[in-house]
Amino acid sequence: MKNPLVSVVILTWNRKDDLIETITELRKSSYASIEVIVVDNGSEDGTPAVIKERFPDVVFVRLEKNTGIAGYNIGMKKARGDYVVLLDSDSFPERNAIERMLKIFESDNKIGAVAFDVHNTVVSGQWSVVSDSRSFDLQKARDTYGYNGAGVGIRKECIEKAGYLFEPYFLYFNEQDHAFRILQAGYKIKFHPDIIAFHKSSMTSRANRSAPYFYTRNLLWLIWRFYPFKYALSTTLLLFFHASLSTLQQRTFIYMKAIMDAVKGFKVVISSRMVINEDIIKGARIPIRWAFTAYI
Amino acid sequence: MKILFIKSTSIQHLALSFEKVRSLPPPTHPLDGCPALLIKEGRGVVIDVLAHPHAVDSLKGFGFINRIIPYNSKGNFSPLHIFREYIRNIRRGKYDMVIVPFNNMSGSGYENVMALAVCTGARQIVTCNRIGDTKVLDIKKALLKVVKGYSCYPLALLMTVILSMIGILIIFILSLRALAKQSLFSATLTPLRLLRRFAPRNDS
User: Fold this and answer.
1) Chain A residues touching B198 at Cβ < 8 A
2) Do A120 and B12 touch (CB under 8 A)?
3) How far is CA A295 from the centre of its chain?
4) Least Cα separation, residue B6 to chain A (angstroms)
5) Is A72 within 8 Å of A48 (Cβ atoms)?
6) What average pLDDT does range A26-48 have in this prediction?
7) Do the beta carbons of residue B17 and residue B99 sit within 8 Å?
8) CA-CA distance, B111 to B142, in Å (whole number)?
9) pLDDT digits 0-9 by tens, B79-110
10) What's phi and psi for B87, nearest 5 deg?
């Protein structure tokens, strides 16, 4: 198919300026056939008015409240393209990224997703990496077991088969959950170091307390949903240990609350359990301890 | 002056830590001028970095690093591995200052890195947290931090056992709540159904 439509779905919540920058950068893409869908999770910073005024061609979906990652699902369902690119409102692809992503997809129809190499940058304006698309080497693509939600392309047909994002997560670990289902559906996920997305990460933004809660709860859910029994049991105990240790060391109850809520949701999570094989677990290398040492 | 930087966080945070350490006020170290000045002028400051082998190439971009010491242990700075493997080697360097960057705010969970810093025998240990706040610790304070960190381990182990028991109990209570809604037969089966979903039937 020549010049297939690519739908870019951007989820936003109170990040008007970042969103404007993301859409502006998307306009500079070397690939023209792009549909931009913005799902606004109930922003209160004037996002709807600004987007409608400055970017009238953008498909804008306004939600009344913050639904977390469920907004991506709404955007993906609206997408008309054969391929969907998911972005955060503070991330955007490098100019050649979408064109290159399509080359990867066209090389093998069993490729379900293309994970962008997400470059986290602290200083605004550090995204001048522009290279010639003609020198793009397909051979550098390698299999991977997950993707970063700040930049990924997914085949629409793959979404239909593997399913949409698991909404109870709200945020965090939804990408890994989705990646497991993509792999389980028989598709491959490819990573290419020259398909780049830029993500404006802030050194201070991680100092909030909701992140360790969601990371801990969702990591338990992820494990219970996908891990074989022996791995699920041992990893749960390991997580309980790290949560206990962090509770004592950091003098916070947030990890215990996360565990309690994870247990409360056990039934919902287990009802959709899908066991993955050990190779995928080993390949995914999920950082168990990271969430406990990355915030407080 | 010899400084050892322990790369316990990302490259980006390491860069931030370098900047923060450069701006430390003069009383922090025994020599004249601040590290920034010394590094810039190359007056007697030697900076070594202890890092995982996968970070070696990226670190080569920092021109002012004298020596990159790669450690071969898998995963985190496990006291069981890295201490045995490197502590003698590092001690031989006789560092005046060790810099420990944290990926979080409080430094919790970094007791292994702090322990390594203490073992180097350096007079000063400078910590730099996620947002770049620096603290200068003498050996006593650093050692206290290590002891406090490790003292939580036995209690955490006990909590894990209690949590596991509570977790199992909650799952059964949730299942038994079906008693009010369903028949006794169905309620008895609910926990079995839940556990059956976990059973290792399709693991391979």
Assistant:
1) 224, 229, 232, 270, 273
2) yes
3) 20
4) 16
5) no
6) 94
7) yes
8) 9
9) 666 666 666 667 766 888 898 988 888 888 88
10) -60, -40
